[in-house]
Amino acid sequence: MYLKSLHLRQFRNYRDCLINFDAPKTILLGNNAQGKSNLLEAVELLSTLKSHRSARDRELVLETTPIAEIRATLERTYGSVELGLTLRTQGRRTVALNQESLRRQLDFLGILNAVQFSSLDLELVRGAPERRRAWLDSILTQLEPIYAYILQQYNQVLRQRNALLKKIRKQQQEEGVDASVSKEFHAELALWDAQLATAGSRVTRRRGRMLKRLAPS
Ligand SMILES: Nc1ncnc2c1ncn2[C@@H]1O[C@H](COP(=O)(O)OP(=O)(O)OP(=O)(O)O)[C@@H](O)[C@H]1O
Ligand SMILES: [Mg+2]
Predict the structure, then answer these.
(1) Is any ligand 1 atom within 6 A of the Cβ of residue 63?
(2) CA of 23 relative to ligand 1 center, distance in Å
(3) Mean pLDDT of 128-141
């Protein structure tokens, strides 16, 4: 897999820029705030559909414009591939493979594989466990794209269970701590508990397997 070209339109500080990577290695040189990190961020987005710098698409679009486009051509063993990602200040992002729009973002993952190193990687060891999980998640998403879906399901169950817990707490506050939590709440909580356990074990199993692959033998 080989990144041949990158075309950035209205992405971050790029209005319209086509970069061809002709050499086996490329070094980006430039003054501060010229767009070096922005360019790498575009590659990261094509690879993982995530940016470690921003959670909102709005921030990725060139100020005062509504849409950003990142396109890339890759040379793979089975031929060349074109990837396209459209980001909007309002509305959902869309992805395309060989100029055909993909219904599921999942099908976009795992095509452009990238590895990042940074001086901040020390944080992986020193920082919070959440960071290590996020790092593992991003590798898994690239190597086993279905993992993105598994993780999304887990987060959805977690959110819904948390919302229910909040509801229960509110009821207890209103009716006193001794108030027995209504039967329906109990039944609903048991349901979410079971789903959380199922979804959670899928996530931990895959993370565990990945850690084994990474561990020196
Ligand atoms: N949505 C946006 N619209 C327009 N400009 C943006 C947007 N987001 C970021 N920028 C601009 O991009 C520039 C930062 O680019 P980038 O972080 O890639 O710099 P860099 O070349 O990596 O610099 P450094 O050497 O300091 O790391 C800033 O000038 C910032 O204002
Ligand atoms: Mg930078």
Answers:
(1) yes
(2) 25
(3) 93
> Which atom of ligand 1 lies closest to the CA of 28?
21
Domains of the chain, earliest start first: 2-116 (3.40.50.300), 119-217 (1.20.1050.90)
pLDDT band at 80 (very low <50, low <70, confident <90, very high): very high
Give the C-alpha separation, 65 to 63, whole Å.
6
Q: Would the pLDDT of 10 be above 70?
A: yes
Atom of ligand 1 nearest to the CA of 39: 18
205 close to ligand 1 (CB < 6 Angstrom): no
Q: Could you give the CA distance from residue 138 to residue 76 in angstroms, rounded to a whole number?
A: 21
Dihedral (Cα; 180, 185, 190, 194), 10-degree rounding: -150
Distances (CA, A) of 198 to 146, 152, 193, 202, 212: 16, 13, 9, 6, 21
Q: How many A from CA of 157 to the centre of ligand 1?
A: 36
